[in-house]
Amino acid sequence: MVPVEGGALRALQAGHPLPGNSVQPCLGWEMSHAPLGSLSVHRLGFGAMQLPGPGVFGPPRDHDAAIAVLRRAVELGVDHIDTAQFYGPDVANALIREALHP
């Protein structure tokens, strides 16, 4: 999971890999795929639990940073975002919708 706050956003914007982040296209390796229903998605996705505010409730501390992280994750090849209605509640889903379908 990519945290939204602090240096993580700056690292993603600069194209630098993050510790524990598996989306590192600059390393020249391909992520493997897995079936998800009739789709084929990367085995490693993005966990949206930390997008809402503290304790997984309410709006994020930095709305623009949350949107930027989602867009950058997709730019880097993420095609599976793990989310739930509980996150926010509904805040993570609304952020994903805004970021990817403005």
Could you give a quick summary of the protein structure above?
The chain has 102 residues and is of the alpha+beta class. Helix content is 30%, strand content 12%. The model is unreliable at 1-7 and 18-28 (pLDDT under 50).
Give the arrangement of secondary structure elements:
Blueprint: H1 7-14, E1 33-36, E2 39-42, E3 46-47, H2 63-75, E4 81-82, H3 91-100
Parallel strand pairs: 3-4
Antiparallel strand pairs: 1-2
Helix pairs in contact: 2-3
Annotation keywords:
4 strands; 12% strand; two-stranded antiparallel sheet; 102 residues; two-stranded parallel ribbon; alpha+beta
Protein described:
By secondary structure, the protein is an alpha+beta fold. It has a domain at 1-13 and 45-102. Helices cover 30% and strands 12% of the residues. The protein is built from three helices and four strands. It has helices spanning 7-14, 63-75, 91-100; strands at residues 33-36, 39-42, 46-47, 81-82. The strands form two sheets. A two-stranded antiparallel sheet has the order 1-2. Strands 3-4 form a two-stranded parallel ribbon. Helix 2 packs across helix 3. The chain is globular. The two termini are 23 Å apart. 23% of the residues are buried. The model is unreliable at 1-7 and 18-28 (pLDDT under 50).
